[in-house]
């Protein structure tokens, strides 16, 4: 059984902390309206300017904060509280908010980065970083409103294997919503039912060559968290009985870990491992189904875990997905 040990936590912390404030290389994914907007990453994003792109920096901070909460004496995270206090200030958050309030800002990082920001805000809160959580709250509230409005306007979910996936964002935002925004939680639950109640899986469409999410398993993860009792168990039973489910139980191979998009497939193995682990823990799931799901989870995590560091193409984000899979208990 692969578990999050202090040694693995230290490895993740060393890797991720080293690039949280590294501004280059930097991927620009926003609309540019004039030359005055061609500014240094740390000017455009006072907090989230490292880790190659905005969303990776957000979940990189989520990762190190979760590690610090689980392993408070980890030497690799010494002084993290002071760094959080330095960066997560009202003035810096105002700079981040400005990016979302400009023309076209409602498209920036939708919905993947929005959901990760909510997860980060919850981690700050649960980790006892009260001042930082308070400072970040206006951005969290803004993006929660954006997400709720987006879900209400969306006619059908996005089922991609990358950042646009709707089910992944809904599930990731749900814990924050339950605690901080009941209206958003209600919207997520209400939209999940008509979108996904009758859906099982379409493994013949996945994986694509650059996926880091499984569209089918992302739906399963959301169903496991939103549906209740017999409805959830019936859905999962039908899902696992599908004749093509075996295609989602075998890890995918990665041909080039220096390619920033092909290495997405390491993330796919980790995110699959996370969902299979979540399914294995669904209350009432028969023991044989739970064991099968746990075995699939372990296979996927084992395939990707050795590769979470070593090349910046994957190093700037993979450890966060590994931590998702390893911190369900």
Task: Describe this entry's structure for a reader.
The chain is mainly alpha-helical. The chain has 2 domains: 1-196, no CATH class; 202-329, no CATH class. Helices cover 59% and strands 0% of the residues. The protein has 15 helices and no strands. The longest helix has 24 residues, at 130-153. The model has no long low-confidence stretch (mean pLDDT 95).
How confident is the prediction overall: mean pLDDT? Answer: 95
Report the major sheet: none
Rg is: 19 Å
Unreliable sequence segments: none
Which structural category fits the helices and strands?
A: mainly alpha
Give the structure's gist in a few sentences.
By secondary structure, the chain is mainly α. 59% of the residues lie in helices and 0% in strands.
Keywords summarizing the entry:
329 residues, 2 domains, mainly alpha
List the topology elements:
Elements: H1 6-17, H2 41-44, H3 54-70, H4 80-87, H5 90-101, H6 112-126, H7 130-153, H8 166-180, H9 182-196, H10 215-226, H11 229-241, H12 264-280, H13 287-304, H14 312-315, H15 318-326
């Amino acid at each position: 059984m692969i578990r999050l040990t202090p040694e693995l936590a230290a490895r993740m912390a060393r890797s991720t902390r080293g690039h949280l404030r590294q501004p280059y290389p930097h991927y620009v994914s926003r609309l540019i309206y004039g030359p005055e907007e061609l500014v240094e990453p740390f000017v455009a994003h006072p907090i989230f300017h490292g880790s190659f792109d905005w969303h990776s920096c957000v979940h990189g901070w989520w990762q190190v904060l979760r590690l610090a909460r689980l392993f408070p004496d980890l030497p690799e995270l010494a002084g993290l509280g002071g760094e959080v206090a330095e960066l997560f200030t009202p003035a810096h958050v105002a700079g981040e908010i400005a990016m979302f309030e400009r023309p076209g800002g409602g498209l920036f990082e939708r919905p993947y980065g929005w959901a990760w920001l909510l997860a980060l805000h919850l981690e700050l809160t649960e980790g006892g970083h009260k001042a930082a959580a308070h400072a970040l709250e206006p951005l969290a509230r803004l993006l929660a409103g954006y997400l709720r409005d987006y879900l209400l306007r969306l006619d059908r979910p996005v089922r991609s294997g990358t950042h646009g996936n709707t089910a992944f964002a809904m599930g990731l935002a749900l814990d924050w919503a339950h605690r901080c925004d009941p209206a958003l939680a209600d919207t997520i639950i209400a939209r999940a039912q008509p979108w996904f109640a009758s859906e099982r899986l379409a493994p013949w469409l996945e994986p694509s060559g650059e996926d880091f999410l499984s569209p089918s398993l992302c739906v399963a993860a959301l169903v496991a968290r939103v549906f209740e009792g017999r409805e959830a168990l019936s859905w999962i039973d039908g899902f696992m009985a599908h004749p093509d489910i075996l295609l989602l139980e075998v890890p995918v191979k990665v041909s080039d870990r220096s390619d920033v998009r092909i290495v997405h497939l390491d993330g796919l193995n980790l995110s699959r491992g996370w969902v299979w682990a979540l399914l294995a823990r669904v209350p009432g799931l028969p023991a044989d189904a739970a064991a099968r799901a746990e075995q699939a989870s372990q296979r996927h995590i084992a395939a990707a875990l050795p590769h979470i560091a070593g090349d910046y193409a994957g190093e700037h984000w993979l450890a966060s997905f590994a931590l998702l899979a390893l911190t369900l208990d």
